[in-house]
């Protein structure tokens, strides 16, 4: 990815404030310390209208879409919001071990022994690293009762066949296209909640 975090984390902001020669008032320091977790997270994640998967759009490539073709094989973001993912260092609630795949640009779960099935690399699976020597790790909110704060879009799911994240809220054909077999994604577990840039 071009950058694991596009904005400085809250820890980095606090370190900058602590080292600044100017004294901040108590209210300004409190505002920095109590910022919402999403403010330090990474934007630029999009829903693909073809495969229903979640992919990172700010790398100058549309990655590899399992519903693409030889002429236009990348993800498409028509109709998508700009989603924000918390990185692990942001803290707060959520399930860790979600990874960005440097090959297909998609989001996949890396907490299982398998690397899933990547539309770019096939059965070799997703790769947890890209052109930079960093391994991404994100927190996703698993259900309504595990949110840091109200709001967000539900019906995001994990596909146990490809290990990818996809949106299951569209009808008909709401389950997208899985790269493993070309059919719809297979739902297991509950609904995840994603937030968008306001």
What structural category do the secondary elements indicate? mainly beta
- How much beta, percentage-wise? 15-25%
Distance between the termini: 23 Å
Low-confidence stretches: 1-39
Order of helices and strands: HHEEEEEEEEE
**Radius of gyration, taken over Cα atoms and rounded to an integer in Å:** 18 Å
Number of separate structural domains: 1
The percent range for helix content is: under 10%
Count of helical stretches: 2
**Gross morphology:** globular
Question: Could you tell me the number of beta strands?
Answer: 9
What is the mean predicted local confidence, pLDDT?
A: 76
3D structure, described in words:
The protein has 198 residues and is mainly β. It has one domain. It is 9% helix and 23% strand. The protein has two helices and nine strands; from the N terminus they run ααβββββββββ. It has helices spanning 10-19, 26-33; strands at residues 42-47, 54-56, 83-87, 95-100, 107-109, 138-140, 153-159, 165-167, 187-196. Strands 1, 2, 3, 4, 5, 6, 7, 8 and 9 form a nine-stranded antiparallel sheet that branches. Strand 7 (153-159) and strand 8 form a beta hairpin. The protein starts with 9 loop residues before the first helix and ends with a strand. Residues 1-39 have low confidence and may be disordered. This is Cellulase. Keywords: Signal. Residues 1-40 form the signal peptide.
